[in-house]
Design goal:
Elements (H helix, E strand, L loop, with lengths): L3 H11 L8 E6 L2 E6 L10 H11 L7 E4 L3 H12 L4 E5 L5 H9 L3 E4 L4 H15 L2 E2 L6 H7 L1 H9 L10
Parallel strand pairs: 3-4, 3-6, 4-5
Antiparallel strand pairs: 1-2
Helix pairs in contact: 1-2, 1-6, 2-3, 2-6, 3-4
Length: about 170
Amino acid sequence: MITRKDVEQAWALIRPHVRCTPVIELAGPAGPVALKLESLQVSGSFKGRGAFHKLLVSKVPAAGVVAASGGNHGAAAAYAARALGHRAEIFVPTIANPAKVARLQSYGAIVHQVGAVYAEARAASERRAADSGALIVQAYEDPDVFVGAGSVALEFAEQAAPTNTSGSS
């Protein structure tokens, strides 16, 4: 089980590598709504937090990292790998958006377009990691990735103004 302490430790480790993204408050039908703009995060989503944590707590072999993605996770893994001086290979399905493929390449990743769907790209990435010895950076099933991604909640809590929950003005 992932605990708050786990997330706090991850946050302390990744903080120098990610952006403090802004929070904006909007008027909502039931009162103010605070939004955290993680689209301004390194690589364009909250997923950079998890990718950095995975790489920082892992022994990354000379073969680097391998990830499968539909876009955002791959961008995060590629960005973090480049920032930390590691090689990255990202596997995406053949239907991947050309702009996302270009973004992956702009981060220095070797991009493999394999299979018609994500599952096929993932299977190819797992074979590549087994053959090369690269570290797999999984998008969904890795506690190290989850813990890093959880740092968004701690940052949000530091930034967001407390809302009035008592019902009085």
